[in-house]
Structures are given as structure tokens and as C-alpha cells.
Design brief:
Layout (H helix, E strand, L loop, with lengths): L7 E8 L18 H7 L4 H27 L7 E8 L5 H11 L6 E6 L11 E9 L10
Parallel strand pairs: 2-3
Antiparallel strand pairs: 1-4, 2-4
Helix pairs in contact: 2-3
């Protein structure tokens, strides 16, 4: 097969809401870009304090996956499977709302798992694994 004619399967594991440049954990709307934080924040302290961390962490993790897939020449529709790990399954509906921003029509096949702890500390509420299938033309000059 000529170069670029083979499909590629990529696996991203351990995507957590930690900024690799600063080593800081995303803890709320203040830790994500302004338009995202402003869109998610209600302005009500109690609501934002409870929902903000999981909403912001969910956005950060999915955006990290989107950027990584794009850097490999793909798009979010190339993600064929997600495994989501939560410390609290009550957070899944909040994550699901954010996931709809990245997958407005149909999300990929997903598995949801509750775990007792995550690294590096207890403020990490979510971790995601993504499996990506890049079609044969992903690294060729042909448009997709």
C-alpha cells in the first residue's frame, strides 16, 4: 500500500484535567477559556461551586482529546470509543451535557466506570480514554 493508504488506530489513555504546561488541575470555570467558562457559569455561587468543577474538567478533557486528534490529522467524528472514569457517577449527566458540545449528533460507543480515586489527587473528578480510527487518507494530501 502507498503511504497514507493504511488506516491508523490511535489510543489515548489517561486524559485528565491537568494543564501539562503548568501542572495545575482544572477546578472550575476560572480555569478554562473565557467563552467556555462564561457559557457554563450561572453566576450563582452554590450552583457554580457544585457543577463548575465537573463541567470545566469535562470540557478540558474533551478539548484535549479534540486537539490531540486534530494534531494527528483527525476530527472528533474519528473517535470510535470513549471510556469515562468518574469518582462519582452523579457527575455523568454534567459530563454528558458537555459531551454534546463535541458530539452534537451521536457520541461514540462509550463505557462509564466509577472508581474510588484518581491521580494526582482527589480534585480530579474524571479521566477519559479515547480510541480513534483514522481513515486511510488521514495522512495523505486528499481532503476528507
Amino acid at each position: 500500500m502507498p503511504p497514507g493508504a493504511e488506516p491508523a488506530i490511535l489510543s489515548f489513555s489517561g486524559i485528565i484535567p491537568v494543564n501539562p504546561l503548568t501542572g495545575t488541575i482544572v477546578n472550575g470555570f476560572q480555569d478554562v477559556p473565557e467563552p467556555v467558562g462564561a457559557a457554563g457559569a450561572t453566576g450563582e455561587f452554590s450552583t457554580d461551586a457544585k457543577q463548575g468543577p465537573i463541567l470545566a474538567q469535562s470540557w478540558y478533557v474533551l478539548e484535549s482529546i479534540r486537539r490531540t486528534v486534530a494534531s494527528a490529522g483527525g476530527q472528533m467524528s474519528d473517535v470510535i470509543k470513549l471510556v469515562q472514569y468518574f469518582r462519582n457517577l452523579d457527575h455523568f449527566p454534567y459530563y454528558s451535557r458537555v459531551r454534546k458540545l463535541f458530539y452534537p449528533d451521536q457520541p461514540p460507543v462509550s463505557t462509564v466506570v466509577q472508581v474510588s480515586e484518581m491521580l494526582p489527587d482527589a480534585t480530579v473528578l474524571i479521566e477519559v480514554e479515547a480510541t480513534v480510527w483514522l481513515p486511510p487518507s488521514f495522512n495523505s494530501e486528499a481532503p476528507r
